[in-house]
Amino acid sequence: MLRYTITPDAAHHAWDVALTLPAPAAPRLRLVMPTWTPGSYVLREYSGRISEVRAWCAGEPLELEQIGKAEWMLDLTEAPDASMIEIRWRAFAFSTGIHDAWLDHDRGFINPPAVLLHPAGRTTEALDVEVAFRAPGWRVHTALDPAEGESVWRARSLDELFDSPFVLTPESGAGTVIWTLEACGVPHDIVITGTGSLNRERIGRDLKRIFETAAAFWDPEAAKPPFRRYMLAMHLGPGLYGGLEHAAGTMLLEDPQTLPAAGEAEPPKRYDEFLVLAAHEYFHAWLVKRLKPAAFLPYDLSRETYTHDLWIFEGFTSYFESVIARRAGVISEEAYRRHFAERMNFALGREGFDAMSLAESSFNAWVKLYRQTEDSAYTQISYYTKGALAALIINRALLERSGGDVSLEGFLARWFAGVRGAVAAGRWPGLADGALGDVIAETTGVDLRALIATLVHERDGRRFWVKEVEASLAAEGLKSEPDPEAPAALRIAGITCRREAGRVVAGYVPSRSPAFAAGLFAGDEIIAVAGERTTPEGFARQIERARGRRVEIHYFRGPRLLSGTLDLAAAPDPAFLELLPRRIVPLDQKSGS
After folding, report:
1. CA gap 362, 91 in Å, rounded
2. Residue 496: which of 530, 523, 517, 518 has the closest Cα?
3. Buried b vs exposed e over 470-504: b needs ≥16 C-beta within 10 Å?
4. Nearest alpha carbon to residue 272 among 182, 349, 229, 332
5. Which of these, 361, 353, 401, lies nearest to 377 by C-alpha position?
6. 541-575 pLDDT tens trace
7. Are 234 and 192 in contact (CB under 8 A)?
8. CA 309 to chain centre
9. Which end of the chain is more exposed for a tag (fewer CB within 10 A), N or C?
10. Domains and CATH numbers, the chain
């Protein structure tokens, strides 16, 4: 059996790792390290943080040669038969990322792919992991089963180990809130670090409702989750946000101002953001952790793994995240509409919506989604947001063509029920690339293959998409209309902007907007409008005052001072207006009210 011993060195922000295993009969052993983490589709090159890789047998050093960026070859010709070998290395851990590793005097986090080397080819055998502290006073949290004592855990396979993060917290409890709640008969460990004060009762009650609602979604009969234990770990820090799903847990990042403090009667306005994020990651325990593309069975973490179907797994989840939160009663109907409008606007508000298909967006995740550039808004679209709109459309199509008998929710529940046993036994082959339409037809008797082909493969179909989205909203008693609360600079001139140390910096500028015609591009620092100095506080008012006129706008592009004419007198281009934010309201609500 393979055994990892992980020893923290908080002063150097590093994990010292030892791997022990019986010497194989072969004269050589190839060691490899992952280059990415499931759920985050970009090469992260974890081996760049690894140092001091050495090997021994019976106290004697063995020859170990690095043969690739994440590969080492161990020479075993000098190793006695039936002997144990030991490989040691150090992993630097100073990233707050949910897909990385962290170690300081008050918190430790291990995403195993970011820390562990492993013997090539030995992916199905059980492994033990020990966390060996140099000093007492720490606790380890993980969803893995204990193997022995209080510091050793067992994974049934390498896939399970790589999908099971570890969080370390001081027993003193400083900055940490830990408790266990039961949902659907399953314990859910909640581990929150980096906090000063939390309303544990409110957060726990809302999370429990989300967990139970999601379980009932996937298993309407028994509402039983597909795991024995779940761990929701979250670290709080200014400006942090994100989540990464795991088979029996999730790792979240949030800003501490998002969560209610102890004794706080009303939660902060952004509390909905956290609840929807938690619903998103919990939903993934079924969709992507168990129902997954065939290309991911098994995962090959040494290279990119391509599929055209990420839009299903992230898009459907992005659609249902707010549905689950609303159904659980933890966000309001208004918050549900607002949240989905944000998804809709992020998709339809980018010219990249017309430039990239869902299939292309999924396939190119490795080089596009996580590596945004200034032209990304013009040339690419997220499979999260466009996929959420596809889910909305497919849901209505299923309901209409089945006479109301089958929804997208009903299809997903039936699909999972049909393969649940095979998934648990490791026999399910996964969703074949591009086969969703076939599976829907086989599961529900409804043929949506032509519709799905249009949604997934065609570009430049904005009018079709908008028509389908509006019809789907109407089926729910909703409609979209121009958002009167959209920033004035965007509505009037086409300038999205951000504040940077007292400066006004342009973000995405639609190419049919007055601002683009004036020469503005992402990254430009706007310094004056109509001869008046621009400040973050006064910029929106400057643009409003310029409405109906042609004014000069001055800006820096790097060290160069540039200027252009901002024409707000001419009628705006309809193509620009199509990109402006919209809000979702009830059908019977009067426009602008």
Report:
1. 31
2. 523
3. eebbeeeebbbeebeebbbbbbbbbbbbeeeeeeb
4. 332
5. 353
6. 999 999 999 999 999 999 999 999 999 999 999 99
7. yes
8. 16
9. C
10. 2-170 (2.60.40.3650), 176-283 (1.10.390.10), 294-476 (1.10.390.10), 488-577 (2.30.42.10)
- pLDDT the model gives residue 265: 83
| Residue whose structure tokens are 């069975």 | 297
Among 357, 355, 271, smallest CA distance to 315 is for 357
The one-letter code for the residue type at 499 is: R
Contacts 24+ apart (CB under 8 A), 453-459: 455/358, 455/390, 455/393, 455/394, 456/308, 456/311, 456/357, 456/358, 456/359, 456/390, 457/357, 457/358, 457/359, 458/357, 459/354, 459/355, 459/356, 459/357
| Residue 450, token pair as written in the block | 């032509």
Nearest-angstrom CA–CA distance, 399 and 576:
34
Give Dmax over CA atoms of the chain in angstroms. 86
CA distance 319 to 324: 9
The pair of structure tokens assigned to 565 is: 């004419």
Residue 267 has pLDDT above 80, yes or no: yes
Q: What is the pTM of this model?
A: 0.96
Question: Cα-flanking dihedrals φ and ψ of residue 153, to 5°?
Answer: -125, 155
